[in-house]
Specification:
Length: about 110
């Protein structure tokens, strides 16, 4: 039985590759030879020309937010626009909440 594959992302190339998960192995981008980030098995790749979506994705992945499946569905809420990211980061600064937790909030009070 084959192992399930998960997504690895190269942010400078705006590319995603599905590969078997192995926490001990660092993935290298085949286009630029840079390090790739593990995004998770529930990751949906934005179009390469969608600059705003890739900026949002860069913030999420660098904050440690992944796109991993839960037992009953997808990864849960993830912001899709830079405006939503800014709102949640401002909320985190005001309330002292970790950025990764604030970014996955579905609503900001």
């Amino acid at each position: 039985m084959a192992h399930a594959k998960t997504s690895y992302v190269c942010l400078p190339c705006r590319a995603s590759y599905k590969q078997p998960y192995d926490r001990t192995r660092q993935r290298i981008c085949p286009r630029c030879a840079g390090a790739m980030i593990h995004a998770g098995s529930a990751f949906a790749v934005p179009r390469r020309r969608d600059v705003a979506a890739w900026r949002t994705l860069t913030v999420l992945l660098n904050a440690g937010v992944g796109f991993h499946k839960s037992c009953c569905g997808g990864p849960g809420y993830r912001p899709r626009t830079l405006r939503e990211v800014r709102e949640r980061m401002a909320y985190a600064r005001r309330n002292g909440e970790p950025v990764a937790e604030a970014l996955v909030r579905s609503d900001v009070p």
